[in-house]
Amino acid sequence: MMKYVAFALNAVAFLFILVCLGGANGDVAWSKMTRQINNCDTTINAGLLGVKKWDSCTKGVATTILYDSDSCTNNQIFGSACGNCDSSGKGVLSMTVFAFLLTLVILGLQGTRFVGKSWDKMIMATLCFVNSFLFFLMWTIWVGGCNKKIKDTGDEWDKDVDAAWALSFLGFLLTAGSGVLELLCMPSGGEGVDYTQPYARQNDNKSDV
């Protein structure tokens, strides 16, 4: 049973990674700024590489500005945050790509258990905890870098972290939970371990020898 739970936790975390990557240009916000201007609700989504801005009065029209462009640094609303967001955003993007690749490896190894392949639980737990650390870096780098600078700009705007950041935090919890399951609930692996059978039954078989 625990092998399915551990696999499911990493599978959900993988879906979260895909959403986080979708926030590179602000399609999914890591941080969000909102304000009503001239009876129009204006929204600025801060992504990993740039921001996307639109308002309720011009539906379907959005402007994307990259952090490393002159259009960003000259912007009166968030121009002072562009440098911090550019460096922290690229750092978070790197961690997200590493987590994407490592999660694929973990899912592949965990998936082979369904056909009887065994892996040492210390190896699997280490991979899960390393992945969890990548998620940890993702949300901490963002909240301490770009989001902190955004909070210091545009005093009349409502500002806070948003969906992509929340998913990176949840991914940190899920992958850490998977590591705990690997460490505490899985057999040690090696010769004689059959993952197609329940762990308790394997122990019963060994005691009969």
The topology string of helices and strands comes to: HEEEEHHHHEHH
Mean pLDDT: 86
Uncertain stretches: 190-209
Structural class: alpha+beta
Helix content: 55-70%
| Strand residue percentage | 5-15%
**Major pleated sheet:** 5 strands, antiparallel
Summed up, the helix count is 7
Distance between the termini: 25 Å
The tally of strands reads 5
Query: How would you write the strand order of the largest sheet?
Result: 4-3-2-1-5
Radius of gyration: 22 Å
Shape descriptor reads: elongated
Characterise this structure.
- With 209 residues, this protein is of the alpha+beta class.
- It is elongated.
- α1 packs antiparallel against α3.
- The model is unreliable at 190-209 (pLDDT under 50).
- It has a 5-stranded antiparallel sheet with strand order 4-3-2-1-5.
- The chain has helices at 2-21, 70-73, 82-111, 121-144, 146-151, 163-185, 199-208, and strands spanning 31-37, 40-46, 50-55, 63-66, 158-161.
